[in-house]
Every structure is written in structure tokens, then in C-alpha cells.
Amino acid sequence: MRSELFSAENLEKESAQPGLRLQNSKLLKAELNGEFLARVGSMVAYQGQVQFEALGSGGIGKFLKQKLTGEGVPLMRVRGQGDVFLADNAADVHLIDLEGGDALSINGANVLAFDSTLKYDIKMVQGAGMMSNAGLFNCVFSGYGRIAVTTKGTPVVLTVDQPTYVDPQAAICWSASLQTGYHRAEQLGLGTLLGRNTGERFTMSFAGQGFVVVQPSEEPPGGLAGAAGGQQQDGGLLGNIFGN
């Protein structure tokens, strides 16, 4: 049997060391000898003796925060020995290694998997108030370990050394040390009163020294909590508080 499908670039990549690594740009491979945490429903294939355990958001405290905020990472613990492949609708996968003292704020919708050695919490974006439901809450990761994030398309990494503004649904992750807020991008005027708008009502603002990663696509609001049970619409924050 002959086909370009069986070319070397499509064959499974092997490594002697366990951990998270890229099989290709859209597929994450976890060479498992122990455990790691992954987004619910992200497994596409596995080999060996592997068990999957649902964790909600990773503990009762995070579960309650997710219910109140609509944001979080619905998780499963993956443990055993073998190879596990994960993906998210053919989105691009990127690996980030955190070291001591590092802290990274990530849009929950873009978290695919991470080492169990990492810590994370759900925190409100500073200065967000109630101006927009998109991007109010994000996941802050810290500690030692590797995390896999997804983007729709090739992202750009902006160095924040001057005031920087990003669509909240396009912001993938940023330095946790940055000062964040929300900025009205659209100017009020007669056109606004007549119902016309630019579609750029609010942007996230970043100040300080660090970076922000921006994807060339706008995720629907709601993060992983919305993705896990059907995409949430605007107003999902209040719906989660009063509707559950």
C-alpha cells in the first residue's frame, strides 16, 4: 500500500522522556507515565493503560467560581502509562514552559492541557467592572511545568512597553504582572444614537512591562465553561449567577 498519507511527517513521533509535546502543529501528544490534566473532551486517541477522571474545574473552590463567573477550565485527570493525543477542532497548539516565579494569565477557552505540577486559579481581570461579559475572568497559572494552549490561526506576541489594547475575545494569554482594564474604543456620537456601531465597543487595556499573545480570531464569550455545554451568549455571567 502506498500513499503520501504514510509519509514520515505523519508517523507518530517517539520520545524517551514522558511529558507533553507536539505531534504536529494541531495535535498534542502526552507520553504518559503518571498523570496530567486536560480539557474535558479533548482526547482524540490513546494507546496503553490510561484512565480518565472528570474533575469539574479542579476542586470545589474553582467549581463555585466557575458557576459564578462562567469562566474556568472543565478538567479531566489523565493517568496511567501510554500515549494520549489531544486536540481542539484542529486549532493550533502551542507549548509554554513555566518556571519558578513565572505567572501567566490565560483565557480559559484556550487551555488544552497542563502538567499536574502547575497551580491555577480563576481571577477577575482588573478594572473590568461590568462593562463587558467577555474576558472578565481568566485563569492564572503559576509554578513549574508545561501548559498547552490553542489559537485559531498564527498568533502575534505583542511586547507591552506602551499602552496596548486588544479585543478581549482575541487575547490568548498575557504576563500576569501586567495592569489590565477595559477601554471604550468606540466614540459616542449621533451614529451610536441611531444604532450604528463599529463592532469594537470595548477593548482590554494592558500597561506595564510584559507581553500579550493575540490570535487572528475572536472566540465567543464564555470560555471553556461555555464550550463544554454549548457556547454561552452575551449575558452568560448573570445567567450563571441567577439561572443555576
Features:
mainly beta, globular, seven-stranded antiparallel beta sheet, 4 helices, 244 residues, 16 strands, disordered C terminus, six-stranded antiparallel beta sheet
Explain what you see.
The structure is a single chain. The model is unreliable at 67-71, 129-135, 188-199 and 221-244 (pLDDT under 50). By secondary structure, the chain is mainly beta. It has helices spanning 60-69, 190-193, 223-228, 236-243, and strands at 19-24, 27-39, 43-56, 75-86, 92-98, 103-106, 111-115, 119-124, 137-142, 145-151, 156-160, 164-166, 171-175, 179-184, 202-207, 210-214. The protein is globular, with a radius of gyration of 19 Å.
Number of helices: 4
> What's the number of extended β-strand segments?
16
What integer is the average pLDDT? 78
Shape descriptor reads: globular
Structural class: mainly beta
Unreliable runs:
67-71, 129-135, 188-199, 221-244
Distance between the termini: 55 Å
Strand content: over 45%
H/E element string? EEEHEEEEEEEEEEEHEEHH
Question: What helical percentage do the residues reach?
Answer: 10-25%
The major beta sheet can be summarized as: 7 strands, antiparallel
Q: Write down the Rg.
A: 19 Å
